[in-house]
Amino acid sequence: MLKIWRMWGIALLSVVMGIGAVQAQTQSEDEAAKAKALLTDAVNYYKENGDKALAVFSRQGPFVRDDLYVFAINTNGIMLASGGPSVMLIGRDIMNTIDDELKPKFEQALSLPENGEILEADYPWGSWDTGGRKITKHVYFQRVGDTVLAVGYYRPRATSEEALQLLNSAVEAVGADARETFKAINALDERFYKDDLYVFVVEMDSQRIVAHGSNLRLVGRDLSALANRVGRPISAEDLTRVNAEGAIEFAYQWEHPITGEVETKHAFARRVGSYLVAVGYYKPEGEQAE
């Protein structure tokens, strides 16, 4: 009977993962359409008005739509305009402000010839509006003369499948060297967080958090002390379950690491020795609990 229930659980999880992937794809397609539409409008406006358009792009006006905005860089790497946080970089060589990982991506994009087409790329980007975390940004861009116009958006919420992939990596690392893995998680090593996903670990005997990939202030805290306005990430009953079953799922209310809003989070957890290792994903906005 237990085997049958486990098989049913695996099948149900597959369905949930499929639904999450479809929702994420729909959200991504919607953002992509809006971003490309804004870029097309900006390119047409720039062709009609030339460099006078740059000041318009940098104002809170028709080329700032919700979280989308236009930015412009010339082929020498100088930021010419921005309707978003990168406005502070206007007039500066962006190559002096980005890390070595990003430089080849920007150099390649700026070196592409003008062909009248909208191109696209992904890159990690962190700023004050992401809480300092590097979040995957998808950007559409088009070259007009010596100017590259672009519109980007942060990728949609991570899916259940991506959460499980990160959990698998974390479980393997904890099994190989728990202490070094905890240090890496607490140091925000990029192996243990991706966009709005992160790993956290609880020592089951003491019921204390020993590693947290988003909030270092929680490390060392007893789980019972976390019962506040955003709830408790995991209960003593959950620890008993994971100790007996080896793997569990649970849901709770928790602050989103990027938006700061309290949202519904669904977590997957596994027992590795005397530790519970967990990764949770935030439900799509339309499915948030009341």
The radius of gyration is 22 Å
Give the H and E element order.
HHEEEHEEEHHEEEHEEE
How many DSSP E strands? 12
Class per helix and strand makeup: alpha+beta
Low-confidence stretches: 1-24
Specify the biggest β-sheet. Answer: 6 strands, antiparallel
Number of helices: 6
Helix content: 25-40%
- The best one-word shape is elongated
Quote the distance from N terminus to C terminus.
36 Å
The multimeric state of the shown protein is: single chain
The pLDDT mean sits at: 83
Walk me through this protein's architecture.
The chain is elongated. Strands 1, 2, 3, 4, 5 and 6 form a six-stranded antiparallel beta sheet that branches. Strands 7, 8, 9, 10, 11 and 12 form a six-stranded antiparallel beta sheet that branches. It is built from six helices and twelve strands. Helices cover 34% and strands 28% of the residues. It is of the alpha+beta class and 290 residues long. Mean pLDDT is 83; it is low at 1-24. Helix 4 (160-176) crosses helix 5. It has helices spanning 2-49, 52-57, 103-111, 160-176, 178-186, 236-245, and strands spanning 64-65, 68-74, 79-82, 119-125, 135-144, 147-154, 193-194, 197-203, 208-212, 247-255, 262-272, 275-282. This is Cache domain-containing protein.
